Amino acid sequence: MKRISGINTPVKGGMAVLKPFDINALSPDGYIFTRWLAALPWWTPLMMLAIIGGYPTIAYAQSGLSIYDAFDALWRWMPFLLVSGFSFNVLISFWTLLIGTVAGVALGLGQISTFGPLRAFSWFITQLFRNSPWLVILFIVLLALPFEFTLFGQTIRVPDWMKGVFGLSLPIMANISEIVRGAVQSVPTAQWEAAESLAFSRRQILWQIILPQCFKRMLPPWMNWYAILTMATPLCSLLGIEEIITLSRQAMESEDNQPELLVPFYGFALLLFFVYCYPIARLTMRLERHYAVKL
Amino acid sequence: MNWTAEKPIVSLKDVRKSFGTLEVLKGVSIDVMKGEVICIIGPSGSGKSTLIRCINGLNDIQGGSIFVQGKEVHAANLDKLELRKKVGMVFQQYNLFPHKTALQNVMMAPLKVLKENKTEVESRARQLIKKVRLEGKEDSYPGELSGGQQQRVAIARSLAMNPEVMLFDEVTAALDPETVKEVLVTIRELAEDGMTCILVTHEMGFAREVADHIYFTDRGVIVEHGPPKTFFDNAQDPRTKEFLGQIL
After folding, report:
1. pTM of the complete model
2. Given CB atoms, is A293 within the 8 Å cutoff of chain B?
3. Residue A255 phi/psi, 5° resolution?
């Protein structure tokens, strides 16, 4: 950096100057996780493989299971873990995103309603679920939701994984609510005034003028939350839902619970999450940079 | 109260407006007849923009009354949307919708608000774009247009609603000197067509040439008003003289 006297180098006898306030330096912009993930080099999984590969050789001395046996076991379970396990995580993430987005958009619009009680209610719900531990929410939903309910005389069973989806949807909903509110409020009020003086109603202004402008701004943070949410789906294993972590544990049990299996099996799960979320993170950051310049 | 063409189309009576404890309009009265062009001039902070924004109800008022075509703007039962169909407004910062092309910007309000037929609206919009001399820019986005071009799209956008009155809030203040002219030419043509115009402006030459009546505001009151010739050549109030002395 060029050294400019008085700006980035102190001057003797110079007066104290109030430097411009860098708001970005203080407030995290919500991309912390995605930015970190996207910044990883593409060969990170190879490094992971190397570490996973190295582990059983160290542990080998204690038992009869060799590195080859451990990877052989993993190899046998791999299709099952991928098809029945990880694809289920993806399914959960899709449903959660769908429900969380629909509910979050509604809640976000509630936060900017002109009707005071609705605004207060939406704000409260948003803050409540945005700031609660996800696992606590998951357990409450699991225990509080009935396992079946009757609709038009028909008994419908609520599968456990649907409860997991619902539990994860709540914090996603709250965060998307904040994205919507923030994006709408980031549109200059002059746009509202211009539309108002063209006799647009408030509803028309919001749906036809403000929200279409917000769409691009909302896309990167929305994808950011999708990546975070996908990474959070293993929480469902604590509810006994048969996703990849639950199935990995069951697979290891059927292989006599050898400790040498732990790192290869869980490492495989880690690898799957990386392979799935890494492109999303890269794309998110690319879109974020793109839209930050051109609105 | 039924409005007829002999009565003022826009009538402000003792309008008072405060922001908190700061009173920015301290009893302003203006009458504008149909087809008249009114320029409001004055030092910055004298309440000019606030005044013009009260006329289409963007700002509320604390006292007095404003009538547009005989309807009270700040009456509780007034349909603001109906009022704004009659009163067009152009802003200093253009405020075009950035996600729509120039043509779409012009067409949007007649289509969505007036619910008019699309082919009719489109032919009218193309004529208006031609009128503001922006042929060939129909499919450009606001970001691709210069300030002067954007401002002319904004004028066309307001005109597409077929308003009775046009409000111009310092529409050339954000433009560079060369593009100021192209916007002023557009406004002058509009005035010559008989459009009722209320302008807040700093362009004294333009005001003198185009306005039927000039109002000079300072610190929330109208200090002096009159036809341009008497106003500019024969100002009476010392505050007006001082202001004109600084500017001319």
Report:
1. 0.79
2. no
3. -100, 30
